[in-house]
Amino acid sequence: MIDIETTVPSMVQPNRQPLDRLRWLVHHVLPRSARLCDALPTPSIVSSHIKVCSQPVRDYALWWITHPDPDSRFASRTSWLQCLPKCILLRMILLLGYDGLVYRCDESILGHVFFQRRRDSIFVFSIAVNGSIENRGCSAVMLLDCLAFAFQTPGVCKMRIGRGQNNVTRRLLERVKKQEDSLGWSVHPNGWVLFPSKE
User: Fold this and answer.
1) What does the alpha-carbon distance between residue 153 and residue 147 come to, in Å, rounded to a whole number?
2) Is the pTM of this model over 0.90?
């Protein structure tokens, strides 16, 4: 029998990249977004804090895990885990490659970008912004942070932001596409951003 409490933390490989160095992409793609950047703190990644993660971040992540959109792929793929105790549930979710950038200000969570890593790809499947900063364009900053995070993560060669079908994703992909040549990336309308130099 596997001892989840002792085995999982050693199997989760936290990403050690400095998350305070993600905003370069925001400044490159949205050069007039200084105020937006001020509204959002440096994100935390859930997996790198599995033992030291603050209670607000743990509670926040667990709330979203246990309250998924019932029609989502995440809900269908993780329904078999929902009966687990919460202390094990989060670790099992992380083992399946799910993770996320969470934006915390004091005891409040301002928003998140949740994703799943599968081999050399990162798939963004959930983004949420707290009502206090909604409609300020912060979701674009958060998605660009996640894109920079994917690019800087060893072994990751591409990222998909949903399916590129909603307005936020479409506009963001259009803006990143304008910077394709300077970034050396390949942007596709179906949500994929490829990092050819890493392949």
Assistant:
1) 10
2) no
